[in-house]
C-alpha cells in the first residue's frame, strides 16, 4: 500500500491535530462502550472519561516499548468484559471490585511479559511456521467480519433511551455517514482525503439532528435519533466549572479503599478470570500486528520485535487499567483508520493518545461523543471493519488456493469465524476469532507436510 504519511513522517502541526482527532474518533466509541457495559451488568459507576484517559496513557506506554515503530492505538478490550464482571461479582464491596480490575490487569500483563520473554529467547521464526499467511490472513479477515453484525446493529438504532427511532431513518443516517466517508476518501483533495471519518461523522450527526428536530417539533418518536441528554446533564445544576472541566473518576481512587478486604480466595478468582483470556488476546495481538505490518510494509514481529509489542501491550494494559479500569488492547479500528487514510504517522497516534488524556477532562466533548447516534458510528464502522476484512483477504492473494492443503486451512478459519464458533468454560470464553485461529493452526500443522500439488 502506498502511504501518504509513513511511520516516521511528520505532518504539519495543524494537520496533526486534525489527523489525531480523527484517529481518536475512530476508536473512541468502542473504548467508551466497555465501561457502559460493565455498569449495566454490575450496577457500578465506572467512568467512561477515565477509560479514555487510560487508553491514552496505555497507548503512550505501548509506543515507548515498541520504539515508536508501531502506529496503533490501544483501547478498552472487549475480551475482558467477562473477567471484569467477575471482579465485581467476586468482591464483597464495590471498592474491592475496582481493586480487582487492577489486580486482574496485572495478571494479564504478567502473561504478556512471560510470553515476551519466551519469544525473546526463542525468536519468532516458529510463529511464522505455526501461523503462516494462510493462517493469519483469514484470521485478520475474521476480525473485521466478526464485527460486521455490530456495525449493522448500530445502524439500525438511535441513541435516545426509551425512544425507538424508525430503523428506516437510522439506516438512512448510517448510510449517509458511510457515503460521505467514502466520497471524502475517494474524491477528496489533500487534507479532506486524510480525514474522511471526521466529515462522515459530522455529516451524519447533522443529518440525524435534522430528523431529531423535526421529530420533537412534530412529536414523532420515529424521527428522534440524536440524544441531547448528555448536553442537558452538563447544565442540570446550573453552569458551573464542572460544566466545562471535570476530573475523571480514576479507578485507583476507589480501589485504594478495597485493599483491606483482599484475601487469597478473591485473588484466585481474579487470576482464573483474567489469565486464560490473556492467552486468547495474545492470538489476536499477533493477527493485529501482522495486519498493520502488511499496511506499513514492515514486519513488526521482527522490528521492533514481537517481544517488544507484547511488552508494550501488556504493560500499557496494566497502566491503562490503573486509571480507567479497562485492560487495553491494540484496536482494529485504529488499524482500519490507518489503512483507509493511508496515514501511518506515529505522531498521529501519539497526538491521539495525548488528546484522549486531555479530552477526558473536557466535559462538553465527552458529552458530544456520548451524543453521537449509534447509527452514525455504525456507518463509520462499515468502512473500518470492512477494511480490516479486506486487508486480511489481501494477505492471502498470493497463497495458492488450488492446493488443498492451503484451501482447507483458509476455509476452516473462515467458516469457524463467520459461523461464530466460541467455547465457554465456566467464566472463560474463547472467542470466535481465537477458536478460528486455533483450528487454523491445527489444520495447518496437520497438512503442512503434504507435498505441493501439480
Description of the molecule:
The chain is mainly alpha-helical and 454 residues long. The chain has one domain. Helix content is 69%, strand content 3%. The protein has 20 helices and four strands. The strands form two sheets. The protein has a two-stranded antiparallel ribbon. Strands 3-4 form a two-stranded antiparallel ribbon.
Counting helices, strands and paired strands, the structural category is mainly alpha
| Shape annotation | globular
In total, how many beta strands? 4
Radius of gyration equals: 22 Å
Unreliable residue stretches: none
Number of domains: 1
Structure at a glance:
This protein has 454 residues and is mainly α. It has helices spanning 13-42, 48-65, 81-89, 94-122, 125-130, 133-145, 148-155, 167-187, 191-194, 196-218, 229-234, 251-255, 264-296, 301-324, 332-341, 346-359, 363-371, 374-395, 404-418, 432-447; strands spanning 74-76, 328-330, 423-425, 428-430.
Amino acid at each position: 500500500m502506498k502511504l501518504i504519511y509513513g511511520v516516521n513522517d511528520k505532518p504539519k502541526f495543524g494537520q496533526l491535530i486534525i489527523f489525531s482527532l480523527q484517529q481518536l474518533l475512530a476508536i473512541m466509541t468502542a473504548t467508551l462502550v466497555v465501561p457502559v457495559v460493565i455498569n449495566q451488568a454490575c450496577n457500578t459507576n465506572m467512568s467512561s472519561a477515565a477509560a479514555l484517559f487510560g487508553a491514552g496513557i496505555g497507548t503512550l506506554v505501548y509506543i515507548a516499548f515498541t520504539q515508536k515503530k508501531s502506529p496503533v492505538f490501544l483501547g478498552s478490550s472487549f475480551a475482558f468484559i467477562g473477567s471484569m464482571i467477575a471482579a465485581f461479582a467476586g468482591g464483597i464491596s464495590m471498592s474491592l471490585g475496582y481493586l480487582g480490575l487492577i489486580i486482574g490487569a496485572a495478571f494479564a500483563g504478567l502473561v504478556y511479559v512471560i510470553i515476551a520473554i519466551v519469544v525473546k529467547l526463542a525468536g519468532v521464526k516458529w510463529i511464522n511456521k505455526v501461523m503462516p499467511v494462510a493462517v493469519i490472513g483469514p484470521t485478520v479477515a475474521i476480525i473485521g467480519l466478526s464485527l460486521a453484525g455490530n456495525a449493522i446493529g448500530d445502524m439500525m438504532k438511535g441513541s435516545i433511551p426509551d425512544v425507538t427511532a424508525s430503523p428506516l431513518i437510522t439506516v438512512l443516517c448510517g448510510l449517509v455517514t458511510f457515503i460521505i466517508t467514502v466520497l471524502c476518501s475517494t474524491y477528496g483533495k489533500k487534507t479532506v482525503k486524510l480525514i474522511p471519518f471526521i466529515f462522515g461523522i459530522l455529516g451524519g450527526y447533522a443529518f440525524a439532528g435534522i430528523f431529531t428536530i423535526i421529530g420533537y417539533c412534530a412529536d414523532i418518536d420515529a424521527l428522534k435519533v440524536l440524544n441531547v441528554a448528555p448536553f442537558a446533564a452538563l447544565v442540570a445544576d446550573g453552569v458551573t466549572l464542572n460544566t466545562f472541566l471535570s476530573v475523571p473518576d480514576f479507578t485507583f481512587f476507589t480501589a485504594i479503599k478495597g485493599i483491606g478486604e483482599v484475601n487469597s480466595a478473591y485473588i484466585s478468582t481474579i487470576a482464573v478470570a483474567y489469565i486464560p483470556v490473556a492467552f486468547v488476546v495474545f492470538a489476536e495481538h499477533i493477527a493485529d500486528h501482522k495486519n498493520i505490518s502488511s499496511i506499513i510494509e514492515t514486519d513488526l514481529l521482527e522490528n521492533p520485535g514481537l517481544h517488544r509489542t507484547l511488552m508494550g501491550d501488556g504493560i500499557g494494559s496494566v497502566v491503562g487499567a490503573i486509571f480507567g479500569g479497562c485492560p487495553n488492547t491494540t484496536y482494529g479500528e485504529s488499524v482500519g483508520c490507518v489503512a483507509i487514510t493511508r496515514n501511518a504517522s506515529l505522531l498521529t497516534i501519539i497526538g491521539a493518545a495525548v488528546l484522549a488524556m486531555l479530552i477526558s477532562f473536557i466535559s462538553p466533548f465527552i458529552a458530544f461523543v456520548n451524543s453521537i447516534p449509534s447509527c452514525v458510528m455504525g456507518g463509520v464502522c462499515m468502512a473500518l471493519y470492512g477494511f480490516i476484512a479486506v486487508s486480511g483477504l489481501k494477505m492471502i492473494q498470493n497463497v495458492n488456493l488450488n492446493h488443498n492443503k492451503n484451501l482447507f486451512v483458509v476455509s476452516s478459519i473462515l467458516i469457524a469465524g463467520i459461523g461464530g464458533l466460541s467455547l465457554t468454560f465456566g467464566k472463560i470464553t474463547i472467542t470466535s476469532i481465537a477458536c478460528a485461529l486455533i483450528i487454523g493452526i491445527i489444520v495447518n500443522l496437520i497438512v503442512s507436510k503434504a507435498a505441493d500439488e501439480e
